[in-house]
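G.,

No rush on this.
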Amino acid sequence: QVQLRESGGGLVQAGGSLRLSCTASLRTFRTNAMGWFRQAPGKEREFVAGIRWSVSYTTYADSVKGRFTISRDNAENTLYLQMNSLKPEDTAVYYCAAQGPYGGTYSSWGQGTQVTVSS
């Protein structure tokens, strides 16, 4: 079972930027796609952005389009989320997740990293 570990969260003022990273523990890690999700207090977990691992394809939630950029480093088994123009409503615990090698549901999850945006 692959382990995913996020890093890069923190406290930032509105309008600022953060970059999240997520590294998979297995060198033989294989996935069809990875994504970022977030969960704010009292709210359900929501999809933020996704990326295919072997082809050039990304997708974003409407709320982050134009502000967030998802990317990957296949050689390092690392996923990134560049977050610019942050808003207080972006405050949440951010999770990375991975599908299996043939797609399907996101079956592997990280422990989450807190992002807090102050107004």
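When you get to it, here's the other one too:
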Amino acid sequence: QVRFVESGGGLVQRGGSLTLSCDASGIVFSRQSMGWYRQSPGKQRDLVAGITVDNRTVYYGDSVKGRFTIARDNAKHSVYLQMNDLEPQDTGVYYCNYYFGPALMPPNWGQGTQVTVSS
């Protein structure tokens, strides 16, 4: 059974930082490109960042470029999202999942982790 378990969310002030973690199981993690997605209140779920199996190709959404960093540890079956200089518009539920490129969304989702940025 495929599982993605996100953690590390919380409440932070504008300008603060958080690091999200995602532990994957039930997949051959080293062969899967992975991504972080965000669903903000009243908005559709969007791709925030993606990373390929060999770390050679990394994607960032325009709104997070220069502030967020995605990384993976294949030995730990984990993917991370370092978020710096957080803004209120970064508020939302963050999910990790497969990364299929900017235009495609995975069909199934876990619980996610809530990030709230106060002004």
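Residues 55 and 71 are 8 Å apart (CA to CA). The two ends are 40 Å apart (CA to CA).

Enjoy the weekend,
O.
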